Amino acid sequence: MVSARTRLSQALRAAAEEGRDEIVAAYLGGESLNSLCRRWGVSSTWLTTRLDTWGVQRRTQAEAFAARRRWVGSAGE
């Protein structure tokens, strides 16, 4: 028997798979991995694996910091 929590996780992952283009565009646009994980309800491990599978070049720590500064700065405008 599958628990309700497992079914929810599976549903969230399926929704994220369907939202692949939106996730990739948001990530490449500067949204953080953690922000995307919260928004889509998936773990960072799962999303990191998916980004790798989808062929998305992940940011270095320095690039992530710079992207965060741009992302936060654009939200205030």
General description of the model:
The chain has 77 residues and is mainly alpha-helical. 74% of the residues lie in helices and 0% in strands. It is built from 5 helices and no strands.
Question: What brief labels describe this structure?
Answer:
77 residues, mainly alpha
What is the fold's blueprint, element by element?
Elements (H helix, E strand, L loop, with lengths): L3 H15 L1 H9 L4 H8 L3 H10 L7 H15 L2
**Ranges with pLDDT <50 over ≥5 residues?**
none
Largest sheet: none
User: Globular, elongated, flat, extended or rod-shaped: what is the shape?
Assistant: elongated
Number of strands: 0
Number of helices: 5
Q: How far from one another are the termini?
A: 49 Å
Question: Could you provide a short overview of the structure?
Answer:
The chain has 77 residues and is mostly helical. The chain has five helices and no strands.
